[in-house]
């Protein structure tokens, strides 16, 4: 299987919180414990996955009753693997950027530069109340996240770093040691206007919820146009809940079972909480602004991306996402270990074949034009 820089990348959600990736009573052969997760990380890197994304949650929401902390858990997964990059989720507010810069610089040294961060901005007011953390308005949360990202980069790359922001201040600060190259990549989660504008200015990667190809294209075009005007370049990652089965009927039956067995109280409670996210932003867009009950059963709208069907159907849909500018697909599964292995064996090779064919065709076109 050949890959190159333009090959689409694959990431999976680390199940470091209990309850799996769907708010449903359906059986999920997935565990949040460290033994299961180390094995999963090893299966993922052997199956062609590039990244693993951990989650940060301080209290239960939609059922995720137990939650392992993201930075320490990510480090454990990096120690159990040799190639996989692990993205630690960070929530400004509870974390101060000086602490994160130092923690991640050390993990970068311990793991040959394989650690990255996902700066999330908070959607769960009850969680902030539970830990006594002030709850800022939607766009203020993003203003803080943007300062957080600027500060992280500054500390990681400059000596005598100075910063005078509304949220953070640094005076002649020199972090030693700084991260070795490659510098830790900075991802962000969120898709409201404020989230997209932040991506177009400072983030290396923009992560968004599941959506149709047209919905994703609109976001990609919007962000890339703004990033270009800012002289910045940003890569795009899209969430999807994958159900790959030998036949389309089997895959659709699994989706139906997940939704039929949804936990309605937990889904409604989640719908109530996420109203504090993009719906509370001035333009009322954002991650869950248009989600239906069925969409929310996968808590990042992962069904909407429609990677549900046979390996061939899924591979073609992934290439369609790539064609509108997507660089990475972030995947959730019902039974993680088994399905990551199946996906690596049956779907990723088809994607690589389709990519190679498209490149060969483009090469022929370039030659013909010469
Ligand atoms: C791929 C992805 C991963 C996320 N991971 C977390 C997380 O681990 N913890 C968290 O509190 N929020 C997480 N978020 C939520 C975002 O940071 C943000 O609060 C949410 O998307 C609402 O943003 P918006 O309404 O401004 O679009 C994630 C979002 C995405 C798209």
UniProtKB/TrEMBL annotation:
<dbReference type="InterPro" id="IPR024014">
    <property type="entry name" value="DMSO2_SphG"/>
</dbReference>
<keyword id="KW-0503">Monooxygenase</keyword>
<keyword id="KW-0288">FMN</keyword>
<dbReference type="InterPro" id="IPR050172">
    <property type="entry name" value="SsuD_RutA_monooxygenase"/>
</dbReference>
<dbReference type="InterPro" id="IPR011251">
    <property type="entry name" value="Luciferase-like_dom"/>
</dbReference>
<feature type="domain" description="Luciferase-like">
    <location>
        <begin position="25"/>
        <end position="327"/>
    </location>
</feature>
<dbReference type="Pfam" id="PF00296">
    <property type="entry name" value="Bac_luciferase"/>
</dbReference>
<dbReference type="InterPro" id="IPR036661">
    <property type="entry name" value="Luciferase-like_sf"/>
</dbReference>
<dbReference type="GO" id="GO:0004497">
    <property type="term" value="F:monooxygenase activity"/>
</dbReference>
<keyword id="KW-0285">Flavoprotein</keyword>
<protein>
    <submittedName>
        <fullName>Dimethyl sulfone monooxygenase SfnG</fullName>
    </submittedName>
</protein>
<keyword id="KW-0560">Oxidoreductase</keyword>
């Amino acid at each position: 299987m050949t890959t190159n820089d333009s090959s689409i990348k694959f990431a999976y959600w680390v199940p470091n919180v209990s309850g799996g990736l769907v708010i449903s009573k359906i059986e999920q052969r997935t565990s949040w414990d460290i033994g299961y997760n180390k094995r999963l990380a090893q299966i993922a890197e052997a199956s062609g996955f590039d990244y693993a994304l951990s989650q940060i949650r301080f209290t239960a929401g939609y059922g995720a009753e137990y939650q392992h902390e993201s930075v320490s858990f990510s480090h454990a997964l990096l120690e159990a693997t040799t190639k996989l990059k692990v993205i630690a989720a960070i929530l400004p507010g509870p974390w101060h950027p000086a602490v994160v810069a130092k923690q991640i610089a050390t993990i970068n040294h311990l793991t040959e530069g394989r650690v990255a961060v996902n700066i999330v901005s908070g959607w769960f007011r009850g969680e902030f109340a539970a830990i006594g953390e002030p709850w800022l308005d939607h766009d203020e949360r993003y203003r803080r996240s943007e300062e957080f990202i600027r500060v992280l980069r500054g500390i990681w790359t400059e000596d005598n770093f100075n910063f005078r922001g509304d949220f953070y201040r640094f005076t002649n600060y020199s972090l030693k040691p700084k991260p070795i190259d490659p510098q830790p990549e900075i991802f962000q989660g969120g898709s409201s206007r404020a989230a997209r504008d932040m991506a177009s200015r400072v983030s290396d990667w923009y992560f968004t919820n599941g959506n149709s190809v047209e919905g994703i294209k609109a976001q990609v075009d919007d962000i890339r146009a703004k990033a270009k005007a800012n002289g910045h370049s940003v890569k795009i990652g899209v969430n999807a809940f994958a159900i790959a089965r030998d036949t389309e009927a089997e895959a659709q039956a699994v989706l139906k079972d997940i939704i039929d067995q949804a936990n309605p109280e937990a889904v409604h409670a989640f719908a109530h909480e996420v109203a504090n996210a993009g719906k509370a932003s001035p333009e009322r867009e954002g991650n869950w602004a248009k989600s239906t009950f069925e969409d929310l059963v996968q808590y990042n709208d992962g069904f909407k991306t429609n990677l549900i069907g046979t390996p061939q159907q899924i591979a073609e849909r992934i290439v369609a996402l790539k064609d509108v500018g997507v660089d990475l697909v972030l995947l959730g599964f019902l039974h993680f270990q088994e399905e990551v292995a199946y996906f690596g064996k049956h779907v990723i090779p088809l994607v690589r074949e389709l990519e190679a064919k498209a490149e060969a065709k483009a090469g022929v076109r370039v030659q013909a034009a010469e």
